[in-house]
Amino acid sequence: MEMIMGLLIPAISGAVGGNITGKISEALNAGGVLNTVMGAIGGAGAGTILSQLGMDASMVDGAADAAGGMDIGALIGAVGGGAAGGGVLASIVGVIKSAMNK
Predict the structure, then answer these.
(1) Is 60 helix (H, G, I), strand (E, B) or coil?
(2) Residue 11 and residue 86: Cα distance in Å, rounded?
(3) What is the pTM assigned to this prediction?
(4) Chain-centre distance of CA 41, in angstroms?
(5) 99: Cβ–Cβ under 8 A, 6 or more apart, which residues?
(6) pLDDT tens digits, 60-78
């Protein structure tokens, strides 16, 4: 369960980040479905990198046990990192798609 949450939170955040990036700039927009898919992939990748650095969304420490078993700082980091990773990958794909359409 912890592993699934550690991947699911950044992937969902990445999908949101990819769509936000596409809405902000038309030059970075790859389309709704592609923004979502690339955002989720980028978010999951960023979540994996963050977990290797010790900032996993499913981390549990002593203070988090009383709050339901999840460290809120790690959760915020996973959401932010996933959204950023998803936004970056969706932007790269959007730029490549724009260049191919010209």
Answers:
(1) coil
(2) 8
(3) 0.80
(4) 8
(5) none
(6) 444 445 456 667 877 888 8
